[in-house]
């Protein structure tokens, strides 16, 4: 309908995590408190304020030679650390849903072995 607002899914997380993709193989990575990146969401820096989130995004954007398109999303904190509350981030955290076919990809060695 014209003039009707779009329905948008709301995240119900309590903390923020910054994520991006690596420029070498496109895998999902998460920003740690020390400024390094981890492939594991459980290692991510879980921030409580929007100011921390914004500062972390600025820090991540300064590293865009190694990562691309950083953004923040909300998480809840569980016994094993941060846990994604939306389906998109849960899928990204588990890895690619289709095999990578690049011969120089780290994951391609696992597919052919």
Short synopsis of the structure:
The chain is of the alpha+beta class and 113 residues long. Helix content is 24%, strand content 27%.
Write a structural description:
The protein has three helices and five strands, in the order E-E-E-H-E-E-H-H. The chain has helices at 50-61, 87-94, 106-112; strands at residues 15-22, 28-31, 37-38, 67-78, 81-84. Strands 3-2-1-4-5 form a five-stranded antiparallel sheet, with helices on both faces. The longest helix has 12 residues, at 50-61. It is globular, with a radius of gyration of 16 Å. Mean pLDDT is 82; it is low at 108-113.
Provide the descriptors you would attach to this structure in a database record.
single chain; 113 residues; alpha+beta; 5-stranded antiparallel beta sheet; globular
Radius of gyration, in angstroms, nearest whole number: 16 Å
Q: Give me the strand/helix succession.
A: EEEHEEHH
Beta-strand residue fraction: 25-35%
Q: Oligomeric form of this entry?
A: single chain
Task: List the topology elements.
Blueprint: E1 15-22, E2 28-31, E3 37-38, H1 50-61, E4 67-78, E5 81-84, H2 87-94, H3 106-112
Antiparallel strand pairs: 1-2, 1-4, 2-3, 4-5
């Amino acid at each position: 309908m014209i003039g009707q607002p779009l329905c948008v899914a709301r995240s119900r997380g309590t903390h923020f995590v910054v994520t991006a993709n690596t420029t070498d193989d496109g895998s999902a990575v998460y920003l740690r408190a020390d400024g390094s990146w981890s492939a594991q969401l459980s290692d991510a820096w879980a921030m409580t304020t929007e100011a921390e989130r914004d500062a972390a995004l600025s820090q991540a954007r300064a590293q865009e030679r190694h990562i691309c398109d950083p953004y923040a999303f909300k998480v809840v904190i569980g016994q094993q650390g941060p846990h994604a509350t939306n389906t998109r981030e849960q899928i990204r955290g588990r890895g690619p849903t289709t095999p990578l076919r690049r011969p120089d990809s780290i994951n391609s060695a696992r597919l052919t072995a």
